[in-house]
Specification:
The chain has 11 helices and 15 strands. It folds into 2 domains: about 110 residues, Aspartate Aminotransferase, domain 1 (Alpha-Beta Complex); about 240 residues, 3-Layer(aba) Sandwich (Aspartate Aminotransferase, domain 2). It is globular and about 60 Å long. The chain has about 375 residues and is of the alpha/beta class.
Length: about 375
């Protein structure tokens, strides 16, 4: 059977696992930008190796854009251009930690963080969460017991729960970090979904920290353009790290990003993507009415707490058997921490709203069904 989805993955299953960017007009703008660059007399300057940390004009424009959207006033020599935010997170990990060190993360964490930790052989320790994200008292206890090298978190539209830290909570998290002298690595990739508010934790923290962001969620992952704000004096080490990872971000794409930041196009994309995500959230609330959902009004995903007797992995397997892919809570859990009975449903993985409705209707029907029986063993 061919499922009615234009984003066919996994034997044509409906993709509710990927936090993709809703395609809402990016194609034409992207095409126009490539045409303009191709006709630019300085095209040759974009066909050579740039500095590992990015061209000076891109870093300067990124510093202005970050200051405008977040309030972080970092000079260009503290803003590095990376191959997406995932690359930025990895660079920050390498700047701070070495194999065997401990990094504190949310007890439910973006799987990309877990992947970086595995490749570096660093230990992740989970900090308890509530409806606003990291709990200060849990962070305090972890700082005392684990002697971490870094605190990594997503304060705005946390992945997978959708939580947003209030300004007060951010100040409390910053205070804990300062008491223990632990830097914070803040992933701001979803800040635009909450209109870049409240401002980042690092604007309150006294301990120099790190801020990672990028354009993959607000515009398109095809740009592969991210940014990492670092404390002063880390350019030499970051150059070495970038040289070993990716050498540099793709020059043609970072030039498009520079132009769009300068022209204010990024804000236009953010509004379009945010509005589409809100429309998808509305569809999810309609189709999954009566279900236990946690999500940001403009979030790319919703966190579905499963009714008895469903377990996350069983539910994900049963959904896949019906042609829909969702992500079980185990994918986000740290170590052997208690795993909630939940799955993440990505609402932006399908190209169209109609495809999304089909996938969510299958999920709704599955929730009301009986899980497969497991035989008894003696």
């Amino acid at each position: 059977m061919i499922w009615p989805t234009s984003d066919a993955i996994g034997n044509n299953a409906i993709n509710l696992v990927t936090n993709s960017v809703p395609i809402a007009g990016q194609e034409q703008v992207f095409s126009d930008a490539l045409t303009q660059i191709a006709a630019d007399e300085r095209l040759g300057d974009l066909l050579i190796y740039p500095p590992n940390l990015g061209r000076a004009d891109v870093r300067a424009q990124a510093a202005q854009w970050i200051h405008r959207t977040t309030g972080i006033a970092a000079p260009p020599d503290q803003v590095f251009v990376t191959s997406g935010t995932q690359n930025a997170l990895s660079v920050a990990f390498h700047l701070v930690a070495k194999p065997g060190d401990t990094i504190l993360v949310e007890s439910l964490t973006y799987p990309g963080i877990k992947a970086v930790a595995r490749t570096m052989q660093v230990r992740l320790s989970g900090v308890d969460l509530d409806e606003e994200g990291m709990l200060p008292e849990s962070l305090e206890a972890q700082c005392r017991s684990t002697q971490p090298k870094l605190i990594c978190c997503v304060p705005t539209v946390q992945n997978p729960t959708g939580a947003v830290m209030s300004e007060k909570r951010r100040q409390e998290i910053a205070a804990v970090a300062d008491r223990h002298g632990v830097p914070i690595l803040e992933d701001g990739i979803y800040d635009f979904l909450n209109h870049h508010d409240p401002r980042p934790i690092m604007t309150w923290a006294q301990t120099p920290g790190y801020f990672a962001t990028g354009l993959s969620k607000a515009v398109t992952p095809a740009l592969r353009t991210g940014f990492l704000v670092v404390p002063p004096g880390q350019s030499d080490e970051a150059t070495r790290i970038m040289g070993g990872m990716s050498l540099h971000a793709p020059l043609l794409m970072t030039e498009i990003a520079r132009r769009w930041m300068k022209e204010g196009r990024i804000e236009e994309f953010e509004a379009v993507v945010r509005n589409d995500a809100m429309a998808r959230q509305k569809i999810a609330r309609e189709v999954l009415a009566g279900c236990d959902l946690n999500s940001h009004p403009a979030g790319f995903q919703t966190w579905l707490t499963l009714p008895e007797p469903w377990r996350p992995s069983d539910f994900a397997r049963a959904a896949e058997a019906r042609g829909v892919l969702v992500t079980p809570a185990e994918s986000f859990a740290i170590g052997r921490d208690t795993v909630p009975f939940a799955v993440r449903i990505s609402l932006t993985g399908t190209r169209t709203h109609d495809d999304l409705r089909v996938g969510l209707k299958i999920i709704a029907d599955l929730i009301d069904s009986t899980p497969p029986q497991v035989g008894a063993y003696v």
